[in-house]
Amino acid sequence: MARWRKNMYALWIGNFATGAGASMSLSFLPLFITTMGNFPKAELTFYSGLAFSITFLSQAIVSPLWGRLADQTGRKPMLMRASIGMTITATLSGLSPNVWTLIALRLIQGAFSGYINNAYALIASEVPQTQSGQAMGMLTTGSVGGQLVGPIIGGFIAGLFGYRIPFFIFGALMFMATLVTYFGVVENFTPFKRQDKSSHTSAFAGVKNIHIVWAMIISSMLIQAATNSINPIISLFVKQLMHSHGNVAMVSGVIAALPGIATLMTAPKLGSVGDQIGPKRVLIGGLILSGAVFLPMFLTTTILMLGILRFFVGISDAALLPVTQSVMTRNTPNEAISRIFSYNQSFQAIGSVIGPMLASGVAGILDYRYVFLMTTVLVIINLIVVLRAYRLDRVER
C-alpha cells in the first residue's frame, strides 16, 4: 500500500476523533455554564457566546503563525502539536471550577487547534493529482462524520452522567488521535525555499474576477456567522421549547447535528448541479433557501418544527459552502491559491466569532427567537454582496 494511503487512513481516524470531540460539548455548553453560578439571562448568554466564539478568535489570530512554522518543520509536528494541545485543554475544561477558567481554556484550545487543516495539507502534498479528489473526500467524511455523532453522543452522555464527562471523552479521543498520528503517519518533509519577489506579491495580483472572489470570501464569513449564531443559545432555546422537561442535552445534540446530516446527504448532488447550471445560480438559490428557513424559526413553537427547519439549514449550507470554494478555485492561479484560501479560512473563523457574539447580545436583550431574525438579516446582506459583485464583474467586462 502506498505511503500516502496509510497516512490517509491514520488521519481519517484523527479527523473523526477531532470532529467528534470538538462538537461533543458545544450543544450543551450553556447548560454547563449554568452549573457554575446563578447567572441572570443576559449574563448567561454573554458567557455562552464568549465561551463558544473565543476558540475561533484565537484560531483566526494564531493560524498564520502555525502555517509559517509548518513550512519550516513539516505537517506532522503540527498535527502532534494540535492533538496534544487539545488533549490537555479538553481534559482540563472538564475540571473547570468557574466560567472564566472554562473561557480561558477554550481560548488556549483555539490557539493549539488546527489538526484537520494540517491533515488536509499533509495529504495534499503527497497524493497523486489524479487521486486528490478521492483523498480529500475521504478525509472530509472523517471530520464531518465525527461532527455528526459528536453532539448526539455528547448530549446522551451529559444527560446521564453530567456535563463534565464529555470533556474527558474529548480529551481521550484526542489522546487516541495523538497515538495514531505518532505511530501511523510518516512524512518525508523538505522545507520550502523562500522566493525572491513572489512571496511579497499580493495574493490577489493574478486573480480573475476579483470582485466575485472577494464576495466569496465575505460570503464564507457571513455563512459561518449565520449558521453558528444559534450554537450558544440552542440548548437554552430547546429547554424553553421543552418547558424544562425531558433530556434537554440529548435533544439539543440531535438538533445541533441535523444540519450536518443534511449537508452530508445533499452536498455531492448540489455540487453536480452547480457544474451543470453554474455556481451563481446555486449560490443565489442557497441564499434564498437559507433566508426562507431562518425566518420561520422566529415563530417556531415545537421541537419537531425546529428540527425540520434546522435540516433545511444544512441543505442551504450544502449549496453555499462548496460553491464559494469552487468559485475561488476557478478564479485563482495555482501560485496564489493557498494564500487566497488562508484568507477565506480567517474570514470563516471571524464569522464563527461574530455570529455567536451577536446572537448572545440579541438573546440577552430581547429573546432567543430574535436570534433567527438577526440571522435572516445576515443572509439578506450576503445576498446583496453576491449580487453586487456579479453586477460589478459584468460592468467591467
TrEMBL record:
PANTHER family: MULTIDRUG RESISTANCE PROTEIN MDTG. It is a multi-pass membrane protein. It is found in: Cell membrane. The keyword Membrane applies. Signal peptide: none annotated. Residues 7-394 form the Major facilitator superfamily (MFS) profile domain. The chain crosses the membrane at residues 12-33, 45-66, 103-123, 135-161, 167-186, 207-227, 247-267, 287-313, 370-390. It comes from Paucilactobacillus wasatchensis. Keywords: Cell membrane, Membrane, Transmembrane, Transmembrane helix, Transport. This is Multidrug resistance efflux pump PmrA.
